[in-house]
Amino acid sequence: MVQLLFGMNFLFENPLSIVLGGIFFAVISLIGLLKTGVIRFLYLAIGIAVLTCLLVAVERRVVTPREEIAQTLQVIAADLESNNTQAILQHVSTTVPRLQKKAERALKPVEIHRVVVKNNLTVDFGSDPDGNRAKATFNAVIVGSEKSGTIRNQTVPMLFIVDFVKEGDAWRVVDYSRRSPTEGIKLPR
């Protein structure tokens, strides 16, 4: 069942495929009406339009695991901008206390002003049959300062790889790594 839902995520991630498919089949039906004059093609076009609207409504209500992770990342970004360490730690799994301590140490000397998660998010659910583990890869730009005042308003683009686990209804971080987004890219000479 889970694999079936993951296979259909392309329909629920973006309504564009539903709308384009609906328009295509409705136009084909209307062409059939114009070519043959058979009224059934009009009814078919109306039915396709209604079905397309229903599918778009369903798409809006269904939140896929990828969309849940994307929403979680946006909440983490907002919590980072608010400099609320306790709120940020709520996104870290309690099964990895070392990661919670690492996050506290990393956040203590800095003040985050802005976090922008870029639109290049990829989520890999690997071979987990239940879909309760995922690896998210994305770019983000962080603007921050050291609380000591040594560095002010530094802009840092990063590539993040974040491992998530589903705990109840929430996706929690169990590990992460970060690096320069250009690391490993060979530029032509």
Descriptive report:
Mean pLDDT is 87; it is low at 1-6. With 189 residues, the protein is an alpha+beta fold. It contains seven helices and five strands. It starts with a helix and ends in a 10-residue tail after the last strand. Strand 3 (133-146) and strand 4 (154-167) form a beta hairpin. It folds into two domains: 2-61; 65-179, Nuclear Transport Factor 2, Chain: A (Roll), CATH 3.10.450. Helix content is 46%, strand content 26%. Helix 3 (16-36) runs antiparallel to helix 4 (40-61). Strands 1, 2, 3, 4 and 5 form a five-stranded antiparallel sheet that branches.
Q: Give Rg in angstroms.
A: 23 Å
Number of helices: 7
CATH class of the largest domain: Alpha Beta
Most strands sheet = 5 strands, antiparallel
Name the average pLDDT: 87
CATH topology of the largest domain: Nuclear Transport Factor 2, Chain: A
Helix content, binned percent: 40-55%
Care to count the β-strands?
5
What is the domain total for the residues? 2
From the spread of the alpha carbons, the general shape counts as elongated
Q: Report how far the terminal alpha carbons are from each other.
A: 50 Å
Helices and strands: which structural class?
alpha+beta
Q: Could you state the order of secondary-structure elements as H and E?
A: HHHHHHHEEEEE
Low-confidence stretches: 1-6
- The CATH level-2 architecture of the largest domain is identified as Roll
Strand content: 25-35%
